[in-house]
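Team,

Forwarding the record for the chain on the shared tracking sheet. I've put the sequence and predicted structure together so nobody has to dig through attachments.
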Amino acid sequence: MATLIRLTSRPPPSSQTLKSLLIPTVRSKTTSTSTPSHRHHTNPHEFSSPSEFLGSWKSPTSPKEAETKLAHLRRDYAKQVKQLRHQYFYEMELHRAEKQRKDEAKREAVRKAKEERKAAKAAAAQTRAAERKVLEDEFRQTLVKERAEKLEYWRATEEMRVQIKSEKNKLLRQQSSMWIDEKDLEKRLVEVILDTTPL
């Protein structure tokens, strides 16, 4: 109970002490939240001019005058709201047209890039087809040349074989003392067998 009595009996802090306690915390909060990016704006917002309705009301002398002034204020306010709406719609239309123009330009750029890629692919395909055709023509010419060389070699070999055979037959004819035709060969063999000469 004694501690409770002491706590409750303590006098409330004065306003000077509260100010001295609150000022450093407020200063620290204001200084900590203000960053350099907030202090230095590269593109500050342009605020519109203050409305002329602010501070324009003066106390009328009679209720009728007050009603008339209020009606004028309402009419002017409605006119200005109408003008602001027209301006807003005009700006939104300009924004929409600008966005549409940018989208069309982007689509056109994408279409041109796609056409350029397609043309580059077609040109590369034509180049590869031309190179492949040149290689095929060279390979075909090589095959034709090899076949011609093989045919020429076969003909030369055949001619050489025929020539060697004819030379061999000619040599046999020269070495034989008497050449017998094939039709008389059997008759001559019989004669040689029967006509034996004694030693």
